[in-house]
Amino acid sequence: MSFNIGLSGLYAANKQLDVTGNNIANVATTGFKSSRAEFADAYSASKLGVGSKTVGNGVTLAAVSQQFGQGDVNNTGNVLDMGIQGQGFFVLSDNGSLSYTRAGAFQTNKDNYVVTADGIRLQGYAADSTGKIAKGVLTDLKIDTSALAPKSTTLIDQGINLNSSASPIPLTKPDPSNPAATIPNAPFNPTDESTYTKSFPTKVYDSQGNEHVMEQYYRKTDTNEWTMYTLVDGRNPYDPASATPLTGTMSFNSDGSIKAMSTSAAGVPTTPPGQYEFSVANNTFTMKGWIPAVYNKTTNTWGPNGSSGNPDGMRLSMNSTTSYNTETARMSQSQDGYATGILSSLSIDSTGVMFASFSNQQSRAIGQVAIASFANEQGLEQMGGTRWKETFASGIPGIDAPTTGTLGAIKSNALEASNVNLTNELVELIKAQSNYQANAKTISTQSTIMQTIIQMT
């Protein structure tokens, strides 16, 4: 019996050496989780239980348990390298078969899917064309490298202050020959700065993503009254052959807020009915049906460029426009149009949302990484390749976006290192070796005793 006890000790020490050696071998493996050999003593027993004077039968290997402690997350500089700070696993799909990993070294394949080094696809949530994440259904994450389609300008929102103390440039002046009468003052001329107070250019885009410049000229015509002249590329927005601007007027209350706004019908086509419009409502000018223009160098003339503006109109919100006693200036501006964009960079935030940035200064979400958690991580089945599979013991995975509930956060440009503590493992190696030698000694001693007994007979 003593031989069997010693043999079980040798077996246990050998398993401890195997586990420790495997940990040491994987000290540099990304996302590796160390293992621990767990042992239990063995006793022989009958139906009535174990006697009070029973000697043990040795030791048995109870389990080799994974230690899912956090490994160091170190920067790599590769945007598709991801580490999980906290609880959770990346979800991978191999033709529909799901597995789970902490190793976040990803890349793209020839079809632009995000995959591991051996081609298994990372799972997450897709985004629609507007960048809205559609949570609920897992899909293969893909980096869409196609061009971002252009968007015509529909709304311009700018905050302008028109100096209430600026010198007026009246539309009329006294008639020198008849002081009781008036005659037209110098008409607006975009090339003559004396005919307006200030101008503000704004980039706008047509339906093909072509850039145009909408120039607005502000002329203070009386106390708390201003006239706005609008040209696009220096031309009438409805007639590229004409340089006659669209005209709008604004009056202000004594506190500097807008009192009233109006437009002139001059320069706005009337046919076909409803197609063209320059109107104002809710402190917003609407220029409907504008015709983007292009200059023909051969004929030295202006004409349509073949694209169109937004059919619903390009709106200019003046809700932030004021008239205070300070410099005439544009304090803020935004417009919602843009040209065609080419993918220029990718970033991933802590919630796993993948943002694509384009050459037209636009950015949008193109997907979100999903991570999974288990009620019993120890119940996961190891597959190799630093991956695990779900089992009955682990329970079903809870899959959601990073930072949801107890799920950890994503750190991009970084990888989680192995959680193996090399110093501890080397100490365990020494202990396992000592255990092996001690158990071998018990067998050697038992052998000596047996020889003594045999010699006595």
Describe the structure.
β7 and β8 form a beta hairpin. This protein has two helices and 33 strands. With 457 residues, it is mainly beta. The chain folds into three domains: 2-69 and 419-456, no CATH class; 73-148 and 342-416, no CATH class; 155-335, Flagellar hook protein FlgE (Tick-borne Encephalitis virus Glycoprotein, domain 1), CATH 2.60.98.20. The strands form nine sheets. Strands 5, 6, 9, 10, 25, 26, 27, 28, 29, 30 and 31 form an eleven-stranded antiparallel beta sheet that branches. Strands 19-20-23-11-24 form a five-stranded mixed beta sheet, with no helix packed on it. α1 (2-25) runs antiparallel to α2 (422-456). It has helices at 2-25, 422-456; strands at residues 35-42, 58-66, 73-75, 82-85, 89-94, 97-101, 107-108, 114-115, 121-126, 139-140, 155-161, 172-175, 178-184, 198-205, 211-222, 225-232, 246-252, 258-263, 277-281, 284-288, 293-296, 301-304, 314-317, 329-335, 343-348, 353-358, 363-369, 371-373, 381-384, 387-389, 398-400, 409-412, 414-416. The two termini are 20 Å apart.
List strands and helices in order, with pairings.
Elements: H1 2-25, E1 35-42, E2 58-66, E3 73-75, E4 82-85, E5 89-94, E6 97-101, E7 107-108, E8 114-115, E9 121-126, E10 139-140, E11 155-161, E12 172-175, E13 178-184, E14 198-205, E15 211-222, E16 225-232, E17 246-252, E18 258-263, E19 277-281, E20 284-288, E21 293-296, E22 301-304, E23 314-317, E24 329-335, E25 343-348, E26 353-358, E27 363-369, E28 371-373, E29 381-384, E30 387-389, E31 398-400, E32 409-412, E33 414-416, H2 422-456
